[in-house]
Amino acid sequence: MGQTISEKVLSRVVGRPVHAGEIVHPVPELVTVHDWYVVNFDRALKEFGVTRLFDPDRVLISTDHEPVAVSPQSAERQKKVREIVARYGITQFYDVGRGGLGHLFPVEMGMIRPGMFVEAYDTHVTNFGAVGALAIPLVVEISEVLALGSVWLRVPETVRVNLHGSLPSGSSVRDVAQKLIADLGDELIDYSVVEFGGPGLAGIDIAGRHTLCNTPLEIGAKSALVEPDAVTLSYLASRVKDDIGLIASDTDAQFRAVIDYDLATIGPQVAIPPTPDRVRPVAEVVGTPIQHAFIGSCASGNLPDLADAARMLSGRTVHPNVRLYVTPATQEVAREAARTGLMEIFLAAGATITQAGCGPCAGGRIGGMADGETSINTGTRNDVGRLGGATGDIYLASPLTVAASAVSGAITDPRTLIIPESKA
Amino acid sequence: MNWRFRGRCWLFGDNLGIDGDIMPLRFALARETDPMVLRDHLMAGIDPEFPSKVAPGDIIVAGRRFGQGNPHIQGFLGIRGHSLGLLAESIPRGSFRNAINAGVPFLAPCEGITKLCQTGDELDVDFENGLFRNVTQNIERRYTPLEPELRAIIALGGWKEHVQKRLASAA
C-alpha cells in the first residue's frame, strides 16, 4: 500500500512502515520551544523530578515572543530563560538579535530539510512544512518529549490540496491561505495533515509556502507541508551542507480527500472577527475605519511580504489616525529589508519598525491595541484581546491590503490604489 | 479501572466550546488543574445547575466538535471531577488529547450518537469494548474503542501519572 509524505516521514523515524491511524512514539530530530514557555517547561520537569533533557542538542529555544524586554518583569523572565538554557545544557539558543521568529529562521539557516520530523510547543511550527518537513505542535506535552524523547501520536490522515493556475494582480498567497481554510472547513481538516502540491506551486516561493503551511492548524489540522520540488532545492542549495533528498506521496497513497484549488479566482480576502476562518471578500468590509495596523508574524513576516507592503507604501504616508507597525520575522529578513531599501520606505511613510520576532501578534505586549480600537493586520489570529485591549475588532488580511488600509485610514481594496510593479 | 458505566444520559448539541461553554476561561488562565475545584463549574456556559444535577457514572453525550477552541484541559478535568463518561460525535485533536490526559473514559467519534438518546435515558456503556446500550429506548450500537495504549493512560489517571510511570520505567 502506498504512503503519504507524512506516513513516509514517520515510518523512517520509527523504523517500520506505518499508516494512518496507528499509534506511534516517534523521536523528533528537533524540538523547538519559545521564550514564553521555557519557565513553564522547567517547572513541569521539576515537578516530575527530571533534571536532564533526553537530548539537549536536539532542543532549540528562540527569544521571539518578547524579544525586547519592555518591563522589569520581562527582563527578569529573560534572565531566567538564560539560566534554564544553561542549566540543561541546551546548545541551540537563539536569544534576542540572533535568530528572530523560531518558526522561520531555522528554515532560513538550513536546519530544516525535506522529510525531517520536528515537534514543538507552539502551534505555528507547521511553517517548517514550507520545505517539506513534518512539524507537529504539542503544547504542554512538549515536557514529556523533553524528558523522555517522545510522546504518543496517531499517524495522521492527509488531505491533499493541488494548486492550479497563478494569482491575479493585487492578490497574494496570504489571500489564498485564508480563503482555503474557510473553503475546506474544520470537519474535513480536523486531525489531518494538509499536503500541498500541484502545478500552481511552481509559482509560489518558500516565503509563500510558509504562509500556506501557517493557517490550516487554525481549523484543527495536525500539520501542513508542501511537497518539496525544484523551488525547494534551489532555496536550500546554499543553506544545507548535506545532500538533500526529495520526498513525495506515492501515486497509490490513501488520502482523506484530494482537493483541486484554482489560484486565478482568488481576490483579496479579509478574515473578520473573531476567528481566522470567517473569511470574506475585501469588498464586504471596505470603509471600516482602523486605528491600528501591523505587518509581520509567522504567517506574513518574510521578505516578500514586506516587499509587497513597501510597494504599496512607496511615496505614500500612513493615515494620521493610524499607527502602522512593521515587524520583520527574522534577523535575516530585517537585514535584507535594510539592504534593499524597504526599511527606508517604511520609515518615510511613518511606520514603526520593531525588533525581529512575533511583533504585536504575541498578545500585543509590543505595539498593541487599546480598548475599542480596530486593527487590520497580517497576524495569525483575530480573537478578541489577541493584540491587547479587552474589546475591539481585529481583521486579518494580506500585506498589500493592510498597507493600503493603513494609508487610507479604513479597510481598503488594494486593487483600487495604484501599485508600482515589483522590481524583482 | 471500571470501564463499564451505567448512568443517566446528559445530551448536548454541536460545537460546545472548551472555553466558555464547558468551562469558564478564567480557570485556564489561572492554570487551575484540580478536578475537585473545576467540577463545580462544569458546563457553566450551558447549564449552571449541571454540577448539582449529575452523579458519578452519568454520561455526557455530545454532538460534533465537542471541546472546540484553544485546547485547554480544564473542561475535561471538570468531567473527571464528577467521574463522568463521554460519548461524542467528534472531538477535535487538541481536546481529544486533553480528554485522555485528564483521564476521562470516552468514545469518539460516535457517528449519530445524539440521535440515539435523550437527557434522562438510562445508558449502559462499555468504554473498553465500545458497546453502547440505551436501556430506556432499547437501542444498541458498537463504536470503535480507544486503542489499549491510550486507554492505559486513562486507567492510570491521566498524563501526569502516565509520564511518572514512563520515567520510573526509564530509570
General description of the model:
The complex is a heterodimer of chains A (424) and B (171). With 424 residues, chain A is of the alpha/beta class. Chain A folds into two domains: 5-264, Aconitase, domain 3 (2-Layer Sandwich); 274-416, Aconitase, domain 3. Chain A is built from 14 helices and 18 strands. In chain A, the strands form five sheets. A five-stranded parallel beta sheet of chain A has the order 4-3-2-5-6. A five-stranded parallel beta sheet of chain A has the order 16-15-14-17-18. Chain A has a four-stranded parallel beta sheet with strand order 10-9-8-11. Chain B is α/β, with parallel strands linked by helices and 171 residues long. Chain B has one domain (4-170): Aconitase, domain 4, CATH 3.20.19. Chain B is 30% helix and 18% strand. Chain B contains seven helices and seven strands. Chain B has a seven-stranded mixed beta sheet, with no helix packed on it. Chains A and B meet through α5 of A and α5, α6 and α7 of B.
Under CATH, the homologous superfamily of the largest domain in chain A reads: Aconitase, domain 3
The CATH architecture assignment of chain B turns out to be Alpha-Beta Barrel
Uncertain segments of chain A are none
What's the CATH H-level homologous superfamily of chain B? Aconitase, domain 4
Q: Strand content of the residues of chain A, in percent? A: 15-25%
What separation lies between the terminal Cα atoms of chain B? 26 Å
Concise summary:
With 424 residues, chain A is an alpha/beta fold. Chain A has helices at residues 5-14, 35-47, 72-88, 105-108, 142-148, 173-184, 186-189, 206-214, 230-237, 297-300, 303-313, 331-339, 342-349, 399-408; strands at 23-24, 30-34, 59-62, 92-94, 117-120, 134-137, 153-154, 157-164, 192-197, 223-226, 257-262, 269-271, 279-281, 292-295, 323-326, 352-353, 374-377, 393-396. In chain A, a hairpin with a 7-residue loop joins strand 12 and strand 13 (279-281).
